[in-house]
Each structure stands twice: as C-alpha cells, then as structure tokens.
Amino acid sequence: MRPKDEHRGERGWERAGAADAIAEGVRGVGPGDIPARLCDVAVQLLPVTGASVSLHTDGMPVQIGASSAQAAYVTEIQATLGDGPCQSAAESGAPVLACDLTEGRDVLRWPVFAQQATAAGVRAVYSMPLGNETVCVGTLDLYCDSPGDLTDRELRTARVMAGMVTLALMALPRAEGAGGPEDERWLSGLTTDHDQIYQAAGMIMAQLGIGTDEALARLRGHAFAHGRTALDVAGDVVAHRLRFDRD
After folding, report:
1. Which of 19, 47, 103, 225 is the most exposed, fewest CB within 10 Å of its CB?
2. Does the domain spanning 4-184 belong to CATH 3.30.450.40?
C-alpha cells in the first residue's frame, strides 16, 4: 500500500496536469468558445471519444459546448427524452457511469436512451456533475464508442476535469477582465438556441391551457415520436410551422 503522502502527490500531479491542459486549451479563446474547447481538452485527457458541457435548468439539459457533432447529438437525445446518465447525475449530484449501453443494468435503467445512443455509435457514458457539494449547475458528459469502466485514476481525472470546468465557466471571464454584470453573466448568451424551447413551451401552454411541465412533456413526446430533437421541434413551434391542438 502506498503512503498517504505519495497518493496526495500523485493526485496533485493529476490536478496540475489537468489545470495545465485546460490553461493551454483555452489560451486566446473568447468566452463563447470556451465550453467547446474544454470538451476538446477532456477528450485529450481521458480515454473517451467525445464530450459535452450542459447547464441544467428546470430539469432540461442546455448544451453549451461539445467536442463533436456526435457528442452534441447524444446530449440532445437526453434532453429530448428527459432521461439518461446526465439527468441522473444532475439529480443526484454524483458521477453516473453508464459503462455498457449494449447490455446489462445500464440498458435496463435507460432502455430508450441506450438504444438511441448505441445507434449513434456511443456505447458508454460517464456523467460528472458541475457545481459543489450542495448545488449541481450542470454536467460534463463523456462519451465512448466502446463499453468499459474508467480506472480509479481515470475517474479521479474526470472528477478533477469537472471541477476545473466548473471553475473555468464561473471564474475565467472575470480573470480576463470582465467589466460588469453583463460580462459576468456571459454564460446566459450561450443558451440562446435553447431559449426557444421555453418560448415554444409557453406557446404550447397557451394553445392547450396546460402548465410548464406538461408543455415540456408534450414537446419532448412529439420530438421522440417523430425521431427529432426537442430543439428542432421547438423551432417549428416558434416559427408557427407546428401547432399543438387540444385532443
């Protein structure tokens, strides 16, 4: 068994390595591009093929950056279904490791998500909560094209990466000389595309005389039934190409 000091030293090097990689990855990058760059760094540091960063508001993952189109798509699947590892991680505030979406307990836990994720080429998902011990503001979702566990060291690195992502998202703009409240809330500008989901939900509420939760459920249900994402359907509702009528 290694002495405690040696464990601490190894973990210190892991944190330093992650911090150095993040610093290099975001050097010279504007705030709006930081989430995607952080996803790229996660793919470099860990044995995964894709990554995405999402904020969670009202139970809906709002994607603000991804390393690839595949990672972005699988994140949207979770948002559309309202189910998946990222949802579970956000609710529990603890890492959720779906190590095999092709068979076994992960398929039983998320059957529809597992089917759609594997169809998109993703066979394992590792979701890390962003925030602190009392508040989860989002998730760092790591995707792999083959089933498998993370080693203890890789899981520590993923946790460190999630902590660094949280710090970078909240503190980096100020470090670059944010000038006021609007600059400090730059993250809100990254969710513009998803604002239409809530605009669409409001329109569905008015059309059907229902509450917010049911409106979002109707939106997700229509998207799932037609093989589309919730974001795509919301765009049609806002553009008046789609109307929800009373049954």
Report:
1. 225
2. yes
Q: Edge to edge, what strands does the sheet with 136-144 contain?
A: 60-66, 50-57, 136-144, 124-131, 96-98
In total, the chain counts a number of residues equal to: 247
Spans of all domains in the chain: 4-184, 191-238
Fold of 191-238: Arc Repressor Mutant, subunit A (1.10.10)
pTM equals 0.75
Q: What is the mean pLDDT of the chain?
A: 81
Residue pLDDT, tens place only, 68-91? 999 999 999 998 888 999 999 999
Cβ burial of 236 (10 Å; 0-12, 13-18, 19+) is middle
C-alpha pair distances (Å), 231 with each of 53, 84, 217, 234 = 16, 17, 13, 5
Q: Distance between CA 39 and CA 52 in Å, rounded?
A: 6
Whether 209 and 190 have beta carbons less than 8 Å apart is answered as: no
Neighbours of 215 (CB within 10 A): 22
Beta partners for 127?
96, 141
Q: Which of 91-105, 117-131, 196-210 has the weakest average pLDDT?
A: 196-210
Contact between 77 and 109 (Cβ < 8 Å) = no
